[in-house]
Design a protein that fits this description.
Blueprint lengths: L5 H4 L8 H11 L15 E5 L2 E4 L4 E4 L2 H4 L8 H13 L10 H13 L4 E7 L2 H16 L3 E5 L8 H5 L7 H7 L5 E4 L19 H11 L4 E6 L15 H12 L2 E5 L23 E4 L11 E6 H6 L15 H16 L2 H22 L3 E7 L2 E9 L4 E2 L3 H6 L4 H11 L2 E2 L1 E3 L2 E4 L7 H19 L4
Parallel strand pairs: 3-14, 5-6, 5-7, 7-8, 8-9
Antiparallel strand pairs: 1-2, 2-3, 4-10, 9-10, 11-12, 12-13, 12-16, 15-16
Helix pairs in contact: 4-12, 5-12, 9-10, 13-16, 15-16
């Protein structure tokens, strides 16, 4: 057998041009939540702090932290170092084993999670963490049904997409039938109430409606909510809602699951959005900001009461990449960096600075129907008619691939050097928590200019 030299194993690869990167991506990959025809993704070649750079060398302010997840900004040295150190020390271990990274992160989580959440299941995504939450709730209660809300997103795997309100669920229902065991209640949207009530005179009718569902169903195991709804509109509930929902769940022996995949990790000015109302869930699910999205990690955290049940009952769940060491060590580094930089408090402070600027835009532009948010998590609803609250586009438009006004505004902002997330009828402002006032001023200027496109078609 002849000896193989390194030269015969592989030759150095030439660097791809930007056009090659884009062409290969379009030809060989699926673009998610879109028609494939016409997809022309930007090539991101580099990123640092609150900015990323395309293949042509142009910089853009990352106003939505990619997918509302790069909370520390790009290239945080401590997190990068933690990834490298863990890769060198122990790249992988089966979840049947204990590792230092797993033990250390578990201990650190007790410092920041809402009090009472003391048992953890680690995944590699938010959608997997929600799947774990559903299984745990059903095993623990012996019940089947999960009550979710419209205008929600809980993931794209079988259970989590079934729990998702809105159009992203529709395609799965059309090809495979409706998943059993998921019910939907009205979302909290005081700007445009789905059940036509007005806050505060309503007495929190949307929560009462949810209780009506529980009373009229035979075996509800849990209610799942995004405390502040994410991509579906950054919907912030009134102060009475979460305490009322907690009481409803207690009254009926139903678990409360908080999906904090997007709203957690300082995004709303508290470690977790539930902390804004002092409400403790039975199960908390999170991901994204737990590692500032540098590596994929999800978390399903439960109370000790739930955990104790499985001392004598079979825990029927698990993954190959559960508690993957390379995902865990960077989470410790992320949390320590958030504490060092005091980013939770900073998020609240910067949000208070940003809010009046966004409201000033709303007073100036007739296409802005509503401004809402907490901390550094905000949405602008774009409307064709401010008086009737008629949006430029609907969820059906999205499914049918019709051009959306928010996409036109976002495209114009990109030309001005600001990248913003756009979804159906609203724009999401959720920059890295390290963002500076000068960066936000730059973003407001770009938004101010781009909104002329929407104003021209508003009545």
């Amino acid at each position: 057998m002849t000896e193989t030299t390194s030269a015969t194993i592989s030759e150095p690869q030439t660097t791809l041009t930007t056009q090659q990167v884009v062409d290969l991506t379009k030809r060989l990959n699926y673009g998610t939540w879109r028609f494939q025809k016409g997809w022309n993704p930007m090539h991101i070649a580099d990123a640092e702090g609150c900015y990323f750079t395309d293949g042509a060398g142009r910089r853009y302010l990352d106003l939505s932290a990619q997918l509302m997840c790069v909370n520390l900004g790009h290239k945080n040295p401590a997190v990068i170092r933690a990834i490298a150190e863990q890769a060198q020390a122990l790249a992988y271990a089966s979840p049947a084993y204990a590792t230092e990274a797993r033990a250390e992160l578990s201990q650190v989580l007790l410092e920041v999670l809402p009090e009472g959440l003391t048992k953890f299941f680690f995944t590699t995504s938010g959608t997997e963490a929600n799947e774990a939450a559903f299984k745990i709730a059903r095993m623990y209660t012996g019940k089947t049904k999960i009550v979710a809300r419209y205008r929600s997103y809980h993931g794209s795997t079988a259970g989590s997409i079934a729990a998702t309100g809105g159009f992203r669920r529709w395609a799965m229902e059309s090809v495979g039938g409706k998943a059993q065991g998921f019910l939907f209640a009205p979302e909290v949207n005081c700007y445009n109430c789905p059940i036509k009530h007005t806050y505060p005179q309503c007495g929190i009718a949307c929560a009462e409606y949810l209780e009506h569902i529980i009373r009229n169903e035979s075996d509800v195991a849990a209610v799942i909510v995004e405390p502040v709804v994410g991509t579906n509109g950054v919907l912030v509930p009134p102060k009475e809602y979460m305490p009322m929902l907690r009481e409803i769940c207690n009254r009926h022996g139903v678990l409360l699951i908080a999906d904090e995949v997007m709203s957690g990790w300082g995004r709303t000015g508290e470690w977790f959005a539930m902390d804004n109302w002092g409400v403790k869930p039975d199960i908390l699910v999170t991901a994204k900001g737990i590692t500032s999205a540098y590596v994929p990690l999800g978390l399903c955290a439960t109370t000790e009461k739930i955990a104790a049940y499985f001392d004598d009952h079979y825990f029927s769940h698990g993954h190959t990449y559960e508690a993957h060491p390379i995902t865990l060590k960077p989470a410790v580094a992320t949390i320590r960096e958030m504490q060092r930089l005091d980013l939770v408090k900073r998020s609240k402070k910067m949000g208070a600075w940003l809010e009046p600027k966004l409201r000033a835009l709303a007073a100036k532009h007739k296409s802005i129907g509503d401004v809402r948010g907490l901390g550094l998590f905000w949405a602008l609803d774009l409307v064709k008619n401010r008086a009737t609250k008629e949006a430029f586009n609907t969820m059906q438009d999205k499914v049918e691939g019709k051009p959306a006004m928010v996409d036109k505004v976002a495209a114009d902002m990109l030309k001005r050097g600001v990248a913003i997330a756009a979804w159906v009828s609203h724009l999401v402002i959720a920059p890295p928590l390290i963002v500076e006032e000068k960066d936000l001023d730059f973003a407001i200027e770009a938004l101010d200019g781009a909104l002329a496109i929407a104003d021209a078609e508003a009545v």
